[in-house]
Design goal:
Elements (H helix, E strand, L loop, with lengths): L6 H4 L8 H4 L13 H7 L3 H21 L7 H24 L8 E3 L12 E7 L6 E6 L5 E8 L8 E6 L11 E7 L7 E3 L4 E9 L10 E6 L12 H31 L11 E2 L10 E8 L4 E8 L5 E7 L14 E3 L10 E7 L8 E3 L5 E9 L12 E6 L3 H4 L8 H19 L2
Parallel strand pairs: 6-7, 15-16
Antiparallel strand pairs: 1-2, 2-8, 3-6, 3-9, 4-5, 4-8, 10-11, 11-17, 12-15, 12-18, 13-14, 13-17
Length: 434
């Protein structure tokens, strides 16, 4: 096999200089190259061996991504490489930097997007040790809700399970909106979540129904008894193990999400149609959360109109993702809307227009350069079940026929669009502390 410089090196995954170390791993067998990393690995250097495995995992992932149905036109190809790089960055942070004994939350927001991430949520993840005691503390801020969930195993590759959930309705808040939650094996007074022996991950969601400039809230974690301890130096074998775990994580998650899109949204399902909502808690999701969605594929002069009845859910929203199941740009582009942010039509429903060009309607979800992708609907805090009269529906229409199809068609000017985007960007800056 001839040597070629990996594309991901050109994208800047590693610092300059590694091309000479890893770029020719597959040199011609008749003229072997004695690389320093290979010599170290042959001598029993686990760090070099683990690094080689990580690099090879990234190369194999690139090859697979390029063969997937989501790797279509230029916009989708760019999305595919961004998908790989985001998965790699997440794997580095989750498996190499994070520590269950000295925990800090890893944040998934607009910076690193994956897995049908909700633009209205700030996701916080931390590894935890099952059966041990952790103190979670923070504040609600301007969020509509905050939820806490424990996972066992490896939920990111489909082998884990939901091992515990603490709803916003259960959470006791102080007058200033602050909270403290204990995660432990033994029950405690106040906010407490049982920590079974097989638990591996704590997941916290701040959910924002209204994007404003108020204090957005935050969350932090400590393993009890470790707050003032000095973190010991890790061994070479420990870091090598972490590199191998990172390779497993980014390889699995990056492959899983486009496959999920193909299986869940495309195979055997008609395009441009909203599915009946399902209770996600039965599938390991959040308690009280119902979801619906579909797959859009539109011509330049077409729009998908999604009609969503108003419900009693405390939070209700719609969003778009690309074919890699990452949320679209949602600060400088309106690719998601909550009912608080949406215009309600005279018939008591919300009409959302999905298209790549401005259709004039106030509830426009902008697909940007994408001609296909997914749309997702969420209802949070549902008590009981949604009725069929509350289910969404959809239809494809020429953009010039929208006004006759949407009751009380309300227009938005370009000045209003600009003001909306500016306000959204400001909220995301405050929410993400970036």
């Amino acid at each position: 096999m001839s040597c070629r410089t990996p594309r991901w090196l050109l994208a800047g995954v590693f610092v300059c200089g590694f091309v000479s170390i890893v770029g020719c791993r597959h040199a011609d067998a008749s003229n072997p190259v004695a690389l320093p990393s290979q010599q170290a690995a042959d001598a029993g250097d686990e760090l070099a061996a683990a690094f080689d495995e990580l690099v090879e995992a990234l190369r194999l992932l690139e090859d697979d991504i390029r063969k997937m149905p989501s790797f279509g036109d230029e916009a989708e190809r760019v999305g595919g490489y961004r998908h790989v790089l985001r998965a790699f960055a997440k794997g580095m942070e989750a498996e190499i930097l994070q520590d269950a004994d000295y925990p800090y939350f890893r944040i998934l927001d607009w910076w690193l997007r994956e897995g049908g991430d909700n633009p209205d949520q700030r996701y916080a993840f931390s590894p935890v040790r099952g059966g041990e005691t952790y103190r979670i503390w923070g504040e609600l801020g301007s969020a509509t809700r905050v939820e806490f969930q424990l996972y066992a195993g490896r939920p990111w590759d489909g082998t884990g399970r939901s091992a515990g959930f603490y709803t916003f309705e259960e959470l006791q808040l102080e007058e200033d909106g602050s909270f403290e939650l204990w995660v432990s094996a033994e029950p405690r007074e106040g906010n407490w979540l049982s920590n079974p022996e097989d638990v591996t991950t704590l997941f916290v969601r701040h959910i924002y129904g209204d994007w404003n400039e108020q204090r957005t809230g935050d969350v932090h974690i400590d393993r009890v008894g470790y707050e003032g301890r000095r973190r010991p130096q890790e061994s070479a074998d420990e870091l090598a193990q972490r590199m191998r775990a990172a390779a497993v994580m980014f390889s699995a998650t990056a492959r899983n999400w486009p496959r999920f899109v193909a299986h869940r949204y495309m195979q055997g399902r008609p395009g441009n149609q909203a599915t009946p909502p399902i209770d996600t808690y039965r599938l390991g999701g959040a308690k009280g959360r119902w979801m619906s969605g579909g797959y859009f594929e539109l011509a330049q002069d077409e729009a998908l109109v999604v009609r969503v009845p108003k419900t009693r859910a405390p939070y209700q929203a719609i969003q778009l993702t690309d074919m890699w199941y990452a949320s679209l740009e949602h600060g400088n582009q309106v690719s998601s809307l909550t009912t608080t942010q949406s215009h309600e039509s005279p018939d008591g429903a919300f009409y959302y227009v999905i298209s790549g060009s401005d259709p004039g309607h106030v509830n426009w979800l902008d697909t940007g350069a994408l001609r296909r992708g997914t749309f997702m609907l969420r209802w949070d805090g549902v008590q009981g079940a949604l009725s069929e009269s509350e289910f969404p529906s959809s239809q494809v229409l020429p953009i010039d026929r929208l006004e006759e199809a949407i009751p009380g068609f309300t227009r938005a000017s370009e000045e209003e669009r600009e003001a909306t985007r500016a306000a959204r960007r400001r909220h995301l800056q405050l929410r993400s502390h970036r």
